Amino acid sequence: MIIDCHGHYTTAPKALENWRNAQIAGIKDPSAKPNPADLKISDDELRESIETNQLRLMKERGSDLTIFSPRASFMAHHIGDFEVSSTWAAICNELCYRVSQLFPDNFIGAAMLPQSPGVDPKTCIPELEKCIKEYGFVGINLNPDPSGGHWNSPPLTDRHWYPIYEKMVEYDIPAMIHVSTSCNACFHTTGAHYLNADTTAVMQCIQGDLFKDFPTLKFVIPHGGGAVPYHWGRFRGLAQEMKKPLLSEHILKNIFFDTCVYHQPGIDLLTKVIPVENILFASEMIGAVRGIDPETGNYYDDTKRYVSATANLTDEQRYMVFEGNARRVFPRLDAALKAKGK
């Protein structure tokens, strides 16, 4: 199987965005606040949004299953308060669940959390548990910066986050460390803020000793790890100066990188620098970079081409990237597939 560990519902029907705009307007004018029941999206609308977009490209490119979560840039945890985020997360997660029910062989969910700046992360636990227990989701997205580019939250190694980690360990689910929209003009959302966060998350884990407290905790760092693989020597050297163990022991038993890197040299570097056991196939298709590369004539986000073409992987290692590692990092995904005889 070709398992894509990083997909977002970026093509949801327009009614979702309209409802969200009304919700945001209702923050200042409570009389304009919409009810979740006001949002009407039919199964046929969901099917059309998926069949003409993600599913079409999956079939064209040869991938089988996508771990599917709400649109990352729409999470916007900095907007409103916890009640706003909680309502919005519940709506977005339910839509992803409905997609997974309509296309059970092609999509399985990962949850958006109802994070809110300055609010105790334990408030996210009811939504997390609902998505795992009722929806059969296999992971979560964790935003290390709910402020939207101002970085007001403690580092990921701080006890502030431990309520989430305790539940992750209990349910044996990984978290993709994924920020949302930047409301700081200094940081372009997908070109800077996302990649900054990927790099920052890894550096925080190097600085701390989180995995001593949670030896089975698993993080997926998206977008190829930001700057990390390119500067692996820098991170190894910094860890050495901090008297930390070798990175293979300090973080690589717990941190994994996806292949959302949109050119062949990037994938070649990733697969040369990072151990193959720590790389998961992903594309984030119909995401940040949707166009066609004039140098190749192919879509930038057709990452399967790069993984298939790199000379750095054997056939056995390619299987690990495409399927084996995802089954290991997402045990609930593996169990769901085995239940279907896959």
UniProtKB/TrEMBL annotation:
Amidohydrolase-related domain mapped to chain residues: 3-331
KW Lyase (keyword) present: yes
SUPFAM superfamilies hit by this protein: Metallo-dependent hydrolases (SSF51556)
UniProt keyword Lyase, yes or no: yes
Keywords: Lyase
Pfam families: Amidohydro_2
Protein's UniProt name: Amidohydrolase family protein
Organism: Variovorax ureilyticus
